[in-house]
Amino acid sequence: MTMLFDPGALDSLSEDAISDILHDWAHFCSLTTSLLSHSQDGPHSHLEPTVASLCNRGLAFLLQDHFLLSLEEAFKRSAVKKFWQQFDSYFDASAIEKAKFHVQESWPEEILSKSLEQLCSEKRSQENCLLLLIETLKSYEQSSKGERDTDHPQLMSRYQLMVSSVLLTTLPWDFPDVLRIYFKKKLEELNSMMADGDNDELEINTDNFPNDADYSHMDTSMYECNGLVMQIGKVVSDLRSLGFTSMAEDAYSSAIFLLLKSKVNKLAGDDYRVPVLWSLKKWIRAVPLQFLHDLLGYLGDSIEGEKDSPSVKSPLASQPSSVPGIGIPSEALVRWQLRLEYFAYETLQDLRIGKLFEIIVDYPDSSPAIEDLKRCLEYTGQHSKLVDSFISSLKYRLLTAGASTNDILHQYVSTIKALRTIDPAGVFLEAVGEPIRDYLRGRKDTIKCIVTMLTDGTGGNSGSSGNAGDSLLEELNRDAENQDGAEFEEDGGTDEKQAWLNAERWEPDPVEADPLKGSRNRRKIDILELMVGIIGSKDQLVNEYRVMLAEKLLNKSDYDIDSEIRTLELLKIHFGESSMQKCEIMLNDLIDSKRTNANIKATLGKSVATGPEQGEIDVSLDILDATIISSNFWPPIQEEELNIPSSVDRLLSDYGKRFHEIKAPRKLMWKKNLGTVKLELQFEDRSMQFTVSPVHAAIIMQFQEKPSWNSKSLAAEIGMPADALNRRIAFWISKGVLTESAGTGPDDPIFTIVDSMSDFNKNGLASEGCQLMEEESERSVASVEEQLIKEMTVFEKFILGLLTNYGTATLDKIHNTLKMFCTSEPTYDKSLHQLQSFLSDLISEEKLEMRDGLYSLKK
């Protein structure tokens, strides 16, 4: 005993004692070598006295260390080296050659299983040798009455640690890849076996399954898969025994998550019309969770929870406490279920966020995908990822010069609707919508497109569930009524019990929420209010609508204004009756015009029929419908000089006289360039019908007198500039009615009527109606921009004087100065955006310049 801790004690030993010790040690080393060489004859019987002799001299720990060292050297030489050599062909291969290994059907299953079995066999053999030494030491301890010198469980632990250390220190870098490939192939095979059964039904008709649905039909294939699970379990068990527990778990975990990710991509894909979350959860329980249950059972781990202990339920979804085919899951299995479900939610969430732009384009057909995304975000809480990703997609795919304003607005409306489903409080809509609103404010046609989308029968409703032909305004009105009704149900008429229930359901705003805006302000998301917010004020929208309404009314060929009245009533709900008063008067003018027109036709028609000048009237009164407007309430009308045919002029004069008689002292002032004219042109071999402006009608009717005109003569006859005539007459040339040829000068071409298609066959539209689409420059009413420029021109001198005095000024300073000093007529009542637009026009005219946000006179 003292010799082990005091080497100086050897000095007290005789030479014979030292000789005996050396003899016994040499004999023990020989026995160890013989024992490890698997020779079973002799060593066992001679080992016990030799060990006893050495232990009596206090060398028990020394002989244990030597035995373990001998085991380590033998294990390295006979087992480990051979084990790694089995994989040398893969370890030494290039990346391309390794890819060829991956596609081999039996690789690495055969080589891995066989090599692990051989290595574990060698390990078990050495363990038997170690157990023999342990039994010998136990026998010595029982025969002796002395202190106990050995810790036998620790000796076996030291051996296990030695095995793991040897393997890990010689581990090639690519061995974990071999394990991952093995488990990946095995799990794909298992999934394929399961998919051959009822599992295919998981991909369809999943939106109506209740939470307590019967899953028993999903268990039919697992018994057939037991052999495959046992193969996998054998490999995992061998790896565990060799100290590769963590590596094995990482490998089959990686394979399970890879298989789950592949399943998510397969179920979700690019089809956004089918919900996939419920199918995914059913598949998780049917395949990976069932596999883990069987694997843990094979490995001897706890696979069932205590019968009397409450089972742990997943916070990710409502689920039954007992899993089909498994029963009450163990704690380990529940942890696996939590990991798998969370990974599934996160993977599906990332997939949907990556395709959110396309999903919103397809909304509301893509509503199932939006609902799935909403549930995923509720469980993962990664809303900021949605905001950042979607804003990035908007900047690169939508907010570009190539995208039309109308497309951007439609996408914005769809975004509002979709994000309202995900986040009813509107917190994330505030962040996502801000870049769109900022970009739209910089486009000149934004207001016009918003008004068109709100009032047009096809705007904003291409994919909605509303009635065909409804405007976005009608859709928003229905939506507002639904929200009001829901809010009334929530807030109005609740008793004390219901109030407590509402309080229990209350949730705080997300951390991303703007603290300056309370939850009550976010509860109702008004799409129309958001659209008005882009413009800046409702007055600008109303003015644009008034111009658009005037243009539409002046170009009507009848008095049908039912849709306009309906739109006006809806706008009055949102903007108030006072704001829409002028528009209401414009519609009343059409109603009064219809009644007045009918009275004049009834009286004037009788007098003309009996009058002495009946023969001089070439145009019947029946074809004339007049729109009589109250000019003070209409936007400024575009005026243009025009000489119309005498027969039409006499008809207008008679109509005006009769109106004066009925409505005295009011008189009509004809705007001869406004309105529409329906024409039928008859040629030798064809007949063509058109609906055109009075100017186009006046041009073509001049060719009744003679078939050919030069530009200047025709312009003088009609009473309009030659350049305007050349622009307007291009319409008739494009329709194949007229041809253009060189005249006496470069600015005086000759226009000739085409009597026969054999002479000119440019555009055959015989007997088909053609509608003229007016150019922007041929509007009947001055646009809002033109009105703004006209109104702001009054303040131009004031702005130039201000900059002369101050040198430079910011936009805010100019705006505030105008508001402060321009209080008398005309009063300055423009918005900051309107002023900025006017200053931009002055910059384009080189009257001003701007640097670093400061305006100054152009030098």
Topology:
Elements: H1 2-5, H2 15-36, H3 43-56, H4 60-85, H5 88-91, H6 95-103, H7 109-143, H8 152-169, H9 175-195, H10 226-241, H11 245-268, H12 277-286, H13 288-299, H14 331-354, H15 356-361, H16 367-380, H17 383-397, H18 405-422, H19 427-441, H20 446-455, H21 472-491, H22 496-505, H23 519-522, H24 527-535, H25 538-554, H26 562-575, H27 581-610, H28 646-663, E1 677-682, E2 687-692, H29 694-701, E3 708-710, H30 711-718, H31 722-734, E4 738-745, E5 748-753, E6 769-771, H32 784-792, H33 796-806, E7 808-809, H34 811-821, H35 832-844, E8 848-851, E9 854-857
Parallel strand pairs: 2-6
Antiparallel strand pairs: 1-2, 3-5, 4-5, 7-9, 8-9
Helix pairs in contact: 2-3, 2-4, 3-7, 4-7, 4-8, 7-8, 7-10, 9-11, 10-11, 10-13, 11-14, 12-13, 12-14, 14-16, 16-18, 17-19, 18-19, 18-20, 20-25, 25-27, 27-28, 29-31
Protein name: Anaphase-promoting complex subunit 2
Keywords: Cell cycle, Cell division, Mitosis, Ubl conjugation pathway
Organism: Rhynchospora breviuscula
